[in-house]
Amino acid sequence: MMFEAFTRGTFDSAGVGIAFWTAGSGPPLLLIHGYPQTHVMWHRIAGALAEHFTVVAPDLRGYGDSAKPAGDADHANYSKRTMAADLVALMARLGHVRFAVAGHDRGGRVAYRMALDHPAVVSRVAVLDIVPTRALYDATDRLIADAYFHWFMLTKPAPIPEALIGGAPGVWLDMCFGGWAGTAGAFTPEARAEYARGFATPAGIHATCEDYRAGASVDYAHDAASVAAGVKIAAPLLVLWGEAGLVGRRFDPLAVWCDYAADVRGHALPCGHFLPEEAPAETLAALLDFFG
To answer: Looking at the predicted structure, is the pLDDT value of residue 112 above 80?
Structure first.
């Protein structure tokens, strides 16, 4: 019901089925969700964005209604480079050869890797409540280790985290949504049910662990290589973060992103980690101003 005005489709990305929803007209805008969510995380603002843009909201591989392949030996099939390639191919199939992209959480990591790897197709990019993967790992201290303990738990070899989360997936999701949000009542029952449906299966839990295993290995290496080569995001970059979350408390987000992008602007919003659901009006206004 939350995306009833959108058309649902499935795209085959080298044998991996990517579910997506699209609506609207105007310049194309790709919306990429984070962990442990799906495209549904955009439900409070997607309709309003579709009044101005052709919105495409996919489920990343491993999430929601998209396919959940087993991880490979080096986790590269869950790298942000691979996830970005899925979505660049999807957008091309839909006829969008150049487009804007906004990503939250893990989706923000896909979005900035997309901008680095495919500069000709990304016109503008917004990242919500993240700093680059390499920057976060390199700055890890007691505060980060405590607040982002899942970054280190989920990277442990299978089936350790899979078994622990699989024993009580509802408890895990309650921890994620209760611990990272800064706004009471941010999540509707319908949205929460969709997140649980897409996540709380053995395949879903394994796939999302592989996402984090890739972050600690191949994604970190890709970030380091880009920095070493002096490659920066060429597209204008909008950085938004929740003022009650870790990103703003531990980092100067704009300063950090200036090491990774040539044109950076942004600000904090009055919320925790889940900007589009906790502060939808402010998130929508910032995205319309930037992409409009």
So the answer is: yes
Q: How many Cα neighbours within 13 Å face the side chain of 124?
A: 15
Active site residues: 105, 273
Helix (H) or strand (E) holding 204: helix 202-214
- The helix/strand/coil state of 26 is coil
| Model pLDDT for residues 156-168, shown as the tens digit of each residue | 999 999 999 999 9
Q: Could you identify the residue written with the tokens 């024993």?
A: 167
pTM: 0.98
Which token pair is 242?
């929740």
H helical segments located in 36-188: 46-49, 80-93, 106-117, 133-138, 142-147, 150-153, 160-166, 169-180
CATH topology of domain 7-291: Rossmann fold (3.40.50)
How far, in Å, are 25, 161, 187, 205, 210 from residue 168 at the CA level? 42, 11, 20, 11, 19
